[in-house]
Design brief:
Helix content: 25-40%
Distance between the termini: 24 Å
Low-confidence stretches: none
Largest sheet: 5 strands, mixed
Mean pLDDT: 89
Number of strands: 18
Number of domains: 3
Strand order of the largest sheet: 9-4-1-11-10
Strand content: 25-35%
């Protein structure tokens, strides 16, 4: 059984609404603050407050950050995230969302993604929102995210570029890239923000899954209206351990290893679940590399585009792969070198394995001047004493 989250976007979605909803279904705001401290960017504060909106009880997330005097580019945001003390999965999800935003803004302004000046979404509060959503998913152990069709609203919104029509141009570009399903709505204000669009387009599959619901939560937006301005989330377990993904493969015999390593990193940033290279022999005894990846169908088109543009291949193979996936759970072990998170493997209700989180062990080893092997051994010893 895998933990899943369904985003019920009856009144749209934004970054703070998503964070509030995650806290409403059990995300501990103290654990979230601790993880976000790994960003090494000072000056922000977050707080989750229980509130009532009309007839609904839920949570609003308040992100307080200073106004930015300069606007960041994609490479600035990438530098902040890649150098942060965060789990690799959190970095991967956060970078994927920012890349989605950059590509959408680039299309609006007719420039490359690296030339885009992030305004609202490059501000510190937006960085906290996006990295916070990635961290919340990680801390709650959510394997897959699904989303409902989206209402978009209408009217005008004030942005750094002036007055923009609702939906904002970047929002429409993001949603059109993944062919997101849209439903009519009479609201005269913005319901889906660019950040909210990036969250669903990057992380979610647009369908309601078969699931066993364990908790329901509401995350409130800043705007107060007659209708509840809230994102509802359903947290639960999938009814089956079967998981379907797409496998893409191609053979490459004329590209340097360092270029293929770059491509692998780029594919992970674009949402591939896994990427690997296999040495092979082609016809006439020619040595080559088989580049392979696993991805969700929703990310397939974007990943095919990366491979076609970044490698010398003229085509690739595609097949649907069915996998059996063990459930994962996370705990924290207190050690003399600090708290280390542990990932537990659960199969058919039985705890069949556990492994310390590499990122935590690496930080502890560096801070205390000991080998990472020693940190692993200490954590494993403490686990056996439980």
């Amino acid at each position: 059984m895998a933990r899943v989250l369904y985003l019920d976007c009856f009144s749209g979605i934004s970054g703070d609404m998503t964070l509030g909803a995650l806290c409403d279904v059990g995300l501990d705001v103290g654990e979230l603050r601790t993880m976000l401290n790994g960003l090494a960017v000072p000056g922000w504060q977050i707080d989750a407050r229980a509130e009532m909106r009309s007839w609904l009880a839920g949570t609003q997330m308040y992100v307080d950050a200073p106004e930015q005097t300069t606007h960041r580019h994609l490479h600035d945001v990438t530098q902040i995230i890649t150098t942060a003390q965060l789990p690799q999965r959190v970095k991967h999800d956060a970078l994927a969302m920012f890349t989605t935003l950059a590509e959408a803004e680039a299309k609006v302004h007719g420039v490359s993604a690296n030339e885009v000046h992030f305004h609202e979404v490059g501000a510190l509060d937006a960085i906290v929102d996006i990295v916070g959503v990635a961290a919340g998913r990680y801390l709650l152990g959510i394997e897959k995210i699904y989303a409902s069709p989206l209402p978009l609203g209408s009217g005008w919104v004030h942005a750094a570029h002036g007055e923009l029509p609702v939906p904002a141009p970047a929002t429409l570009n993001i949603l059109s890239a993944v062919q997101a399903p849209i439903i009519p709505d009479a609201a005269t204000f913005e319901l889906v923000t660019p950040t909210g669009a990036a969250i669903v387009a990057t992380l979610a599959e647009f369908r309601r899954p078969a699931m066993q619901i364990t908790r329901v939560g509401y995350g409130f937006g800043r705007k107060k209206s007659e209708r509840p301005n809230a994102l509802r989330v359903w947290l639960g377990e999938t009814a089956t351990v079967a998981d379907t993904v797409v496998q893409l493969e191609c053979n490459i015999d004329d590209q340097p290893a360092e270029q293929l390593a770059y491509v692998c990193e780029l594919l992970l940033q674009q949402g591939a679940r896994d990427v690997w290279q296999t040495p092979i022999l082609m016809k006439k005894g020619r040595a080559a590399i088989m580049l392979s990846l696993l991805c969700d169908e929703s990310r397939e088109a974007a990943l095919v585009d990366v491979i076609m543009r970044q490698t010398s291949t003229l085509g690739m193979r595609r097949q649907i792969i069915e996998r059996h996936v063990a459930e994962r759970a996370f705990t924290t072990v207190m050690t003399p070198y600090g708290d280390i998170r542990v990932k537990h493997k659960i199969w058919q209700g039985d705890m069949v394995g556990a492994a310390p989180e590499y990122a935590d062990c690496a930080v502890a080893a560096t801070q205390h001047g000991v080998s990472i092997h020693h940190i692993y051994a200490v954590v494993q010893s403490l686990l056996t004493q439980r």
